[in-house]
Design a protein that fits this description.
By secondary structure, this protein is mainly alpha-helical. The chain has one domain. Helices cover 74% and strands 6% of the residues. It contains seven helices and four strands; from the N terminus they run ααααααββββα. The chain has a two-stranded antiparallel sheet with strand order 1-2. Strands 3-4 form a two-stranded antiparallel ribbon. Helix 1 runs parallel beside helix 6 and helix 2 packs across helix 6. The longest helix has 38 residues. The protein is elongated.
Length: 224
């Protein structure tokens, strides 16, 4: 009696040696954790950064919400504008489409129990995994640079909020919310995030739009 056909084991690509960007990312993450956990180090870094930030967006501690907004726009804008130096948006989209199409075909083949198609698709798996890893690699390259911007700004904002004589602010549901109150995260981080996340998304989408538009113009010029 013939053995039942089984799916061939997927081929796993040979692991690559860690690159310098991986080491830098690990180093920056470790440094970030040390600064976040060590209050003295965090305060020292925040006070040092305050020499630059206080005269520009500190507003003599009179408008803390405005300071948080300006700091959020600066940090998010700078990290987002640096992203194209490390990420090719067009290639990233192509990789996502290829990986998505491959996974869909593999699911369909397994559902139909098409052993020949499964075998052929699994033979392509190393190349598809390589495509998927391209997205992760671009993020790893950007992360150390982002940390160099994010860590000092957060350290300064922690010192800035801690030095406020009146840490109260008004929101629609309360006229006496406190920056130092914590709801999983400190209130000032939640206020900061309310500004940075939408702004970052809009700016990132705008940059992707211009990248795709540029690529379409190039393709149109080649077709003439």
């Amino acid at each position: 009696m013939a053995d039942k056909a089984t799916s061939p084991a997927p081929q796993v690509p040979t692991p690559q040696k860690p690159t310098s960007s991986t080491f830098m990312t690990i180093f920056m993450l470790g440094l970030a954790m040390i600064i976040l956990l060590d209050q003295n180090l965090r305060s020292a870094l925040g006070e040092l950064c305050g020499l630059a930030f206080n005269p520009i967006i500190g507003f003599d501690n009179q408008y803390p919400i405005l300071t948080l907004v300006m700091a959020g726009l600066f940090m998010t804008g700078l990290t987002t504008l640096l992203r194209p130096l490390f990420t090719n948006f067009v290639k990233q989209a192509e990789s996502q489409k290829i990986v998505g199409a491959y996974n869909k075909e593999l699911r369909t083949a397994r559902k139909e129990n098409n052993m020949y198609k499964i075998k052929k698709l699994l033979e392509l798996q190393p190349k598809i995994m390589e495509k998927s890893m391209e997205q992760t690699k671009s993020q790893f390259k950007l992360m150390p640079v982002s940390m160099l911007i994010i860590i000092p700004i957060f350290a300064w904002l922690a010192v800035f909020v801690g030095d406020l004589e009146n840490p109260l602010f008004a929101v629609p549901w309360s006229s006496s919310a406190n920056f130092e109150d914590s709801y999983l995260l400190p209130s000032w981080i939640l206020v900061y995030s309310c500004v940075t996340i939408p702004f970052g998304q809009v700016l990132a989408r705008t940059m992707r739009y211009f990248s795709f538009s540029k690529r379409l113009r190039e393709l149109a010029a080649q077709g003439k």
